[in-house]
Amino acid sequence: MSLACTCTLGVAFSIKSCLGSAPVSSIPYAINLIWLINIGVATFLFHALLVVIEWILLRDDFNKKHFLQVFVGVLFGVFTSFSVSLMNFVPNADNLLIALLMTALAVLFIALGLFFYVPTNLIPLSVEGVTQAIAIKSNRPFSKIKVYIDVCIVLTALLLSYGFLGELGSVGAGTILSALFIGTCVKYIHKLNFHITGNSVDLKKM
Fold first, then answer.
1. Mean pLDDT computed over 190-197
2. The pLDDT of residue 41
3. What is the distance between the alpha carbons of residues 138 and 58, in angstroms, rounded to a whole number?
4. How far apart are CA 41 and CA 107, in angstroms?
5. CA 206, CA 203: separation in Å to the nearest integer?
6. Which distant-in-sequence residues (6+ apart) come within 8 Å of 184 by Cβ?
7. 3-state SS of 52-114?
8. I want to staple 103 with a disulfide (CB 3.0 to 4.6 A). Which of 82, 122, 139, 174 is the partner?
9. Local confidence band at 206 (pLDDT 50, 70, 90 cut-offs)
10. H/E element holding 187?
11. Best CA proximity match to 12, nearest among 183, 174, 180
12. Residues 6+ apart with CB under 8 A from 65
C-alpha cells in the first residue's frame, strides 16, 4: 500500500503543478473530456486494453493473475484521489519555477514507486505490465522501454485531445517531461541502488 501511495503521490504532485496530468492518466482523462465518459470507466477501459496487448505479446508466458491489472488500475485511481485529497493544503503552482519543482517531485515519486513495486512480482499496473512484456520480448532494459511507452501514451492522448477537441486537453509540459524522464529516473535509481547495495534489481520479473 505504501508503494502505491508513493506513485499516486507523484501523480498528485503532477496535478498540483498545473502542467498537465501524469502520463498514466493522460489517455483516460482525454477520453473523459472527449466522450464525457466517467473517468473511472475510462480508466477501466484503458487498463483493459493494455492487458489485452500484454496477453497478445506474451501468449503462453502470460500470467493469468495479470488479468487483475484492470482492477489494480481502478484501485490506483482510488489511491490517486486519496493522495490528491491529502495534498489539499498544498496550493497549486502559481509560477513556473514552483510548477517545474512539483513536476520534478512527481517524476521522482513515481520512479521510486515503480522501482520498489515492480520487482516484488505482485500485480503491477497494466502500463508497467505491458512495459515488462515489451522489455522481455525485445530484450531491452525496462527503463528504456518505459520511456518509449510513456511517450507513446502521451502522444496518443495529445492526438485524441487535439483531433476531437482542438486543444491539448490532458497533456501539458509536465506530462511530456514526465514521459521523458520517469523511465530515465528509474534507471539512475537502479544504478544508485546497485552502487550502495551491490544488488541488481530485476525490473522485468513477472
1. 88
2. 81
3. 11
4. 26
5. 8
6. 143, 147
7. HHHHHHHHHHCCHHHHHHHHHHHHHHHHHHHHHHHCCCCCCCCCHHHHHHHHHHHHHHHHHHH
8. 174
9. low
10. helix 173-197
11. 174
12. 123
* Residues 68-116: tens digit of each pLDDT: 988 888 787 777 777 778 777 777 778 899 999 999 999 999 999 888 8
What whole-number distance in Å separates Cα of residue 91 and Cα of residue 72?
29
Mean pLDDT, residues 60-69: 87
- Among candidates 100, 74, 91, 80, which has minimal Cα distance to 9? 80
Q: Which residue type does 107 have?
A: V
Task: Locate 160 and state its grid cell.
Answer: 485524441
φ, ψ at 137 (rounded to 5°): -70, -35
What is the spatial distance between Cα 35 and Cα 52, in angstroms, rounded to a whole number? 22
The letter for the amino acid at 203 is L
The C-alpha atoms of residue 83 and residue 106 are separated, in whole angstroms, by 12
Tell me the C-alpha distance between 139 and 98, whole Å. Answer: 38
Return the amino acid letter for 121: N
Ordered by start, the domain boundaries in the chain are 2-197
In the chain, % helix, strand, coil (3-state, to 5) comes to 80, 0, 20
Res. 121 pLDDT band, cuts 50 70 90: low
The amino acid present at 48, given as its one-letter code, is A
